[in-house]
């Protein structure tokens, strides 16, 4: 069995990458999939939102954070895995990833490093799905994550003023796909940008159907632009204050239902929260 690898990416910060990957990881658990979340963003947002740090001693945080993947010789990902209250396992992030980015030196080297680790490790292949949260900075680490991914999901801020970077991101994914193909890395697992969707991260960034239609027309990515967007919700923020994803906090709310729809589009499934939740 091989774990499917799903990375979230957009070089724009604050567009909903972490919120999305956390909701998708959680939905994956509720959907019965053995799930691992890797926090590959130096800002550690997914780690903090998963509320794992408070249960770990500082020395353990040092020994277990994701930077150790780049320091251990040979790397042993299973030694870094921690459990979360939400049912998925995690490899926690670290601010030191900024430094790890520097030893990855060039993009081609970076891409080989992470892919070999993720595809060949026996413990990691016990998972059905491995989700990778990435930061907004374009560099070797982001390249490595995208090259390693089977599926890439790109959330975007919703308004037309916020979308220029999102429009550039498919070209970045394409570049990563070419690196994977050029280096003959796992030819049976091409990188695919499976979903672009919009997320109203603020009340100002209202989604208009114009933006969605424009994206659909502009991209030659059939089916990749979702008609569903995640609406702005104060409940999403409120849930986060209690370290809860919106799918747990308010499963019937519009944003939770939007995440379920997009999840089903990504995984070609028919999962529903009814039965999985009682909110
Ligand atoms: N639909 C939404 N409604 C309200 N707030 C949101 C929504 N989506 C994201 N946010 C908020 O926007 C901010 C940025 O989201 P985040 O997922 O951290 O983005 P990124 O990981 O791309 O930087 C967070 O504070 C998050 O709580
Ligand atoms: Mg983030």
UniProtKB/TrEMBL annotation:
Which sequence ranges form a coiled-coil region, renumbered to this chain? Answer: none
The record's InterPro entries line, in alphabetical order, gives: AAA_dom (IPR025669), DNA_Partitioning_ATPase (IPR050678), P-loop_NTPase (IPR027417)
**CDD domains for the chain:** ParAB_family (cd02042)
> Which top-level group of life is the source organism from?
Bacteria
Query: What are the residue boundaries of the AAA domain, all occurrences included?
Result: 4-177
Q: Read off the PANTHER family from this record.
A: P-LOOP CONTAINING NUCLEOSIDE TRIPHOSPHATE HYDROLASE (PTHR13696), PARA FAMILY PROTEIN CT_582 (PTHR13696:SF52)
**Name this polypeptide is given:** Sporulation initiation inhibitor protein Soj
Q: Which organism is it from?
A: Reinekea blandensis MED297
